[in-house]
Specification:
single chain; alpha+beta; Adenoviral Proteinase, Chain; 6 strands; hydrolase; protease; Peptidase_C48_C; cysteine-type peptidase activity
Length: 193
Amino acid sequence: MTQMEKKSTQCTSIKVHPLLKGRKLDKDDEERLRRWATNGLLEKRQVVASYEGKQHLVLVREDICTLLPQRWVNSNIVQWMCSTFNVSESLRFRDDFYCIPPEILWFVLVCIDRHWWLFAFEIAQKRLWVLDSMYSGEYNDDRSNMHAYVGKIIEDIAKVLMSAYEPTENDLPRFYPSVPKQHNGCDCGVFGV
């Protein structure tokens, strides 16, 4: 996704342990932290990092160990990095793209009247992203009703797949990120996805 609307992303900072706040770490300190965080003899489920303002983003020692050589990086690390990129001060990350975190449950591609667009369901925030290269404001009632219907179906599927999932009482909130507009009438699938 490119150029997310400012209202849909919030800047959050990474929580720093009180003993480390304001302290400049030298190479020895960094190495000691790395050894502690990846020590396989210590509790694997111990929280070693948490993301301020995002309660669902925590890294336990087991997650950090996936960063060791010849290991598969797990989805918690990817989700953390996506969140970090998305709130970065870097112009490249702020303006050029949005990293879709793995907390997105799935994508639903739709084509009606020869126009393609994509729904993406974000589990943690319980919201529906509508990526539509032709979106220019509020939709008519038919389109809004269809978006609500798709949201309801997605929540019903989520409930079946994840027994702990609690559906929203009303419609899923929908967000319409700014996606590039096609310059012709046939590239909507490429631009919206």
